[in-house]
Write a structure and sequence with these properties.
Length: 607
């Protein structure tokens, strides 16, 4: 309530500010709407005169509205609301459809920041309407105005638009992904495995672009390569897959997918086999013929046998291609090899070996194996006969043993020893000489444990056994390296070896002498132990004598030695007759990647 003043005095009526009627002030009569802001006599009332659009805004920019008032005190605030077809809170940076303007000097400029919403939706009209009264209760007349929001945003979308319905194994195809209005890096996945495809996920950047209407389209090419897996899996289609486009990462949200794409099975299974082996129990003197086959592939085929040339005519070679055979949808390419079993005129028992089918080389990848056993049909001639191991040394080792393969580690070999044998034609008092030649490319992989040596008469009765399973032996060693050759030959003859000076054998080791050891401690070569003492004949063959824990053996230390060099040790003087047999318990152990030559490493002679 308030008093109406006239010339500073109170005239006799009290009324509400919004009361209406006719009043007398002095000699004047007035009528109208009275507002608090104009309650002072002689001042015009507050009024809201206009609200106009001062600027047309664009998405991502700002629009402006200009409000003009009269007689509105500074600091007065008035609320407003936005409306219009399609107008939502997402159109405004503030995220709100309402706001407040402050009036100073009878005006207010209302700035409205508009959002860029990444949607192509056309221009929109926004309407601003004032609240009906301001903060002082003055009527605003609910003034309104409108402005145009220019649509500058573009909708971002994704579409895999091009893919083949099928591909063949081994083929590379390009899948087209179109990205509308964005240059972002895209990601892709396929629901396959790396067994079937070179890659099953990846990223891609656009390689070209073009404009269509209001949109810029960025073109990505996704390369998909199906592997030719050499497996016959079924026709017409072995597999199918779907390509998915993703954002953010290869595990991000999927934004587009292709239809199912079939993979046509053009591969055929490749396999290797020893198809036929003419005799798996050949007699000495027999020739063995072998046929090997490759299914659906042609390449060079090689072979090897874990024997020595004392046992067979050849221990390795390249197979000969002889043609092919078609069976159903498959083609089998045929290769042959042959070798002859040596008739050695020595009674030594049956011997077991393995034939290896290989690719790459005679020491390459093993594709198939077959075991066979040589039947000992030779007999030592009655009253003597045998090899001349006096004029030159005789290579006696059975095979190379890959210690790392057997042990599965670098530890010393703990498997059984082999026993090699030779019959001599020497008669008289003499010595047995054992020589070790370094043939491994990395020389320290050349330790050859020798556990024992036996001398038997022509009837197979043991005459002498020398065990090397303690730190004491009657054998003696030469103490120098003997320069050698790459050829299959020991560096000197037994006659030359007999002229050397010899020393006692101990546990002291160096490259020019034999030593006694219970373990060389060298990775991938040597043996863990020797063998138990026996008076019985050692059985000739591979892996016939087990190791005995904490026993010694003889070996030549080869770390730091010269490749192809040799050294020798000798037995005490002993009576030898033509037809006597020498057996050496040994293990040619080494590293599979640096093997010793089992035909040029361990030698025996008599003089």
């Amino acid at each position: 309530m308030a008093k109406v003043h006239d010339n500073g005095g109170i005239i006799g009526k009290t009324l509400d500010f919004n009361d209406t009627g006719t009043y007398t002030t002095g000699n004047k009569r007035n009528s109208g709407i009275w507002n608090l802001s104009s309650a002072v006599p002689g001042e015009p009332p507050a009024s809201y005169d206009s609200l106009s659009n001062d600027y047309t805004g664009s998405e991502g920019g700002s629009g402006y509205f200009f409000l003009v008032t009269s007689n509105v005190p500074n600091g007065t605030t008035v609320g407003y609301t936005f409306s219009g077809t399609g107008i939502t809170t997402s159109d405004f940076v503030s995220g709100s459809l309402t706001g407040t303007a402050t009036i100073n000097n009878n005006s207010s400029s209302i700035e409205v920041p508009f959002s860029a919403d990444s949607l192509t939706e056309g221009d929109e009209t926004v309407i601003i309407t004032l609240d009906s009264t301001d903060s002082l209760g003055n009527s605003t007349g609910s003034l309104s105005a409108s402005a145009l929001i220019i649509d500058t945003s573009k909708t971002v979308s994704y579409a895999i638009i091009s893919w083949p319905s099928s591909i063949i194994e081994g083929e590379t195809v390009s899948i087209q992904l179109d990205v509308y209005n964005s240059t972002e890096t895209m990601y892709w996945t396929i629901n396959g495995t790396t067994a079937d495809f070179n890659a099953v996920s990846g990223s891609t950047n656009y390689s070209s672009s073009y404009v269509s209407g209001n949109n810029t389209i960025y073109v990505h090419q996704i390369p998909i390569t199906s592997k030719a897996d050499n497996l016959t899996e079924g026709n017409p289609f072995a597999e199918s897959f779907v390509v998915s486009a993703r954002t953010g990462s290869t595990s991000g949200p999927i934004v587009s997918t292709s239809s199912s794409i079939d993979v046509y099975d053009t591969s055929k299974t490749v396999s290797y086999s020893i198809y036929s082996f003419s005799d798996t129990t050949p007699n000495e003197g027999d020739t063995v013929n072998v046929e090997m086959r490759i299914q659906n592939e042609t390449e060079n085929i090689y072979w090897s046998i874990n024997a020595t040339t004392a046992d067979v005519s050849a221990i390795s070679g390249q197979a000969t291609y002889i043609g092919y055979t078609a069976i159903g949808n498959d083609t089998y390419y045929r290769y042959t090899a042959s070798f002859t079993i040596t008739a050695d005129n020595t009674t030594e028992g049956n011997e077991a070996y393995t034939f290896y089918m290989r690719t790459g080389s005679t020491s390459g990848t093993i594709e198939d194996v077959l075991d066979f056993t040589i039947q000992d049909t030779s007999t030592t001639p009655a009253g003597g006969g045998g090899e001349d191991i006096t004029s030159s040394f005789y290579e006696i080792s059975n095979r190379f043993i890959a210690s790392n393969t057997y042990m599965g580690s670098s530890a010393d070999y703990s498997g059984p020893y082999d026993v090699g044998s030779v019959t001599t034609d020497f008669s008289g008092t003499g010595r047995i000489y054992i020589g070790v030649k370094v043939t491994a490319a990395t020389t320290y992989y050349n330790d050859i444990p020798i556990a024992a040596v036996q001398l038997l008469n022509s009837s197979g009765t043991v005459k002498n056994t020398w065990m090397f399973n303690t730190t004491s032996t009657t054998w003696q060693t030469y103490t120098q390296q003997i320069a050698g050759y790459a050829a299959y030959l020991f560096p000197v003859s037994p006659a030359t070896a007999s002229t050397y000076s010899y020393s006692s054998i101990t546990t002291s080791a160096n490259v020019g002498r034999f030593s006694l050891a219970t373990s060389t401690g060298s990775s991938y070569t040597g043996a863990q132990d020797g063998v138990s003492t026996t008076s019985s004949p050692f059985s000739v063959g591979n892996g016939t004598v087990s190791q005995s824990l904490n026993t010694y053996y003889m070996y030549r230390e080869t770390s730091g030695s010269t490749r192809y060099s040799g050294t020798v040790m000798r037995s005490p003087l002993v009576s030898i007759s033509s037809g006597d047999e020498i057996r050496v318990v040994h293990a040619v152990t080494g590293y599979s990647s640096n093997p010793m030559n089992a035909d040029d490493s361990l030698y025996v002679g008599v003089y």
